[in-house]
From TrEMBL:
It is a multi-pass membrane protein. This is Carbohydrate ABC transport system, permease protein 2. It is found in: Cell membrane. The keyword Membrane applies. The chain crosses the membrane at residues 7-28, 145-169, 176-200, 206-226, 309-330. Pfam families: BPD_transp_1. PANTHER family: ABC TRANSPORTER PERMEASE PROTEIN MG189-RELATED, ABC TRANSPORTER PERMEASE PROTEIN MG189-RELATED-RELATED. Its main location: membrane. The lineage of its organism: Bacteria, Candidatus Ozemobacteria, Candidatus Ozemobacterales, Candidatus Ozemobacteraceae, Candidatus Ozemobacter. It comes from Candidatus Ozemobacter sibiricus.
Length: 345
């Protein structure tokens, strides 16, 4: 059978290879989170994707085989010691063997839960060996979720109101005001760090949730993004609704917002992603561990003594999981928005 478009097979093959290439860092991060520190350090000079517990024996090198056998011998000594058996003469006390989910327990805090965060249950001690900040990772996670959702909803509301005004209303200097707002996008955020910090300090908002949320509830980019979509909505809808007695806010709430679901979802994804990945600003305006966010928590796995790669990869997996789920849930609206936003009536 002759293919009608044989070149398409080459294109699809290249796309599949590109997808595998792009997916490899994520796979590496997930598998590394299940490795022990000893396993990571002793296989660091070559690419070993699968952990020892998952890798078939025929893929092990001689060095891997010796290391796995030594770890198994240490595990047997540990089990004998726990059973009350004496150590063999000349044997050293073995370390606690590494379990598959030890890195995740170390990151989240063994036995931690939302109930302990809310104060409804006693919070157990952090896992042995946890550095300062690791035992609070569950707190960082919930802080980031709260801050990101609050900023996203607030930003969507304020931006949609401003974009609605610029798209449907006529008022003096409308174009000049809009161009002035766009001009503020040329200022880098780094140049505004000190002025914003001084302002929040005068308001006594440093080290509060207000410092994490309030400066980001309005976004010029969000206004521009939504205005471009609102401009393509038929103006006849606005005139007909006004004649029928619909107020301007009712038209915004009952007509404009329902028709703007794709760009609103897309903008929400961008805003949530930017807030979730924010590091510099939360690090500057917060001092207490109770107010830290997840990106600041990741930095606790780095120290002068080195990087704890296993726990860091486990924490990174927990960090990106909500983003992946959110994108797949909103993928349809995201694609629709990219196909329509920017068009004009």
């Amino acid at each position: 059978m002759r293919l009608k478009h044989p070149f398409h097979l080459v294109v699809h093959a290249l796309l599949i290879l590109g997808s595998i290439f792009m997916l490899f860092p994520f796979v590496w991060m997930v598998t590394t989170s299940f490795k022990s520190e000893d396993e990571i350090l002793k296989t660091g000079k070559r690419i070993v994707v699968l952990p020892d517990a998952w890798r078939p024996s025929f893929l092990n090198s001689e060095e891997d085989t010796r290391r796995i056998e030594a770890a198994a011998a240490q595990r047997r000594l540990w089990e004998d010691l726990q059973a009350g058996k004496p150590l063999p003469e000349g044997a050293r006390k073995p370390a606690k063997p590494f379990e598959t989910f030890d890195n995740y327990k170390l990151v989240w805090g063994e036995g931690e839960s939302l109930w302990s965060f809310l104060g409804l249950a006693s919070s157990p001690a952090a896992a042995p060996g946890a550095k300062k900040g690791q035992q609070d990772f569950y707190r960082y996670f919930l802080n980031t979720m709260f801050v990101s959702i609050t900023i996203t909803l607030s930003s969507l509301f304020t931006a949609s109101l401003a974009a609605y005004a610029f798209a449907f209303f006529k008022f003096p200097l409308k174009d000049a005001i809009f161009m002035g707002l766009l001009g503020t996008m040329m200022l880098p955020q780094q140049a505004l760090l000190i002025p914003n910090y001084i302002l929040l300090s005068k308001l006594n908002w440093i080290n509060t949730y207000a410092a994490l949320i309030v400066p980001w509830v309005a976004s010029v980019y969000s206004v521009f993004f939504l205005r471009q979509f609102f401009l393509q909505l038929p103006k006849d809808l606005f005139e007909a609704a006004t004649i029928d007695g619909c107020t301007r806010f009712q038209f915004y709430w009952k007509v404009v917002l329902p028709l703007s679901k794709p760009p609103m979802v897309t903008l929400g994804i961008f805003t949530f992603l930017g807030t979730w990945n924010s590091f510099v600003w939360p690090l500057i305006v917060t001092n207490d561990a109770e107010l830290r966010v997840i990106q600041v928590g990741l930095s606790y796995f780095n120290s002068e003594a080195g990087t704890q790669w296993g726990p860091l990869m486990a924490a990174s997996c927990l960090t990106i999981f909500p983003l992946v789920v959110m994108y797949f849930l909103a993928q349809r609206q995201f694609v629709e928005s990219q196909a329509t936003t920017g068009m004009k009536e």
